[in-house]
Amino acid sequence: MINLVLGVLSGEFAKERERVEKRRAFLKLRRQQQSDRELNGYLDWIQRAG
């Protein structure tokens, strides 16, 4: 009985870890895209001024 409970808990924790890892990867990608947009805007601004 205890093995069943531990197995269920283990599966739930594995799902939660996977969810957290996916969220972390998504946020990292979003930050990178934001940085790219900011850099491109800055370079456009410099190019127009020059």
From TrEMBL:
InterPro entries: VDCC_alpha-1_subunit (IPR050599). The keyword Transferase does not apply. Keywords: Glycoprotein, Ion channel, Ion transport, Transport, Voltage-gated channel. One of its GO terms (biological process) is chemical synaptic transmission. GO terms for cellular component: synapse; voltage-gated calcium channel complex. Gene3D superfamilies: 6.10.250.2500. Transmembrane segments: none annotated. It comes from the Eukaryota. Coiled coil: none annotated. GO terms for molecular function: high voltage-gated calcium channel activity. PANTHER family: VOLTAGE-DEPENDENT CALCIUM CHANNEL TYPE A SUBUNIT ALPHA-1. This is Ion_trans domain-containing protein. It comes from Schistosoma mattheei.
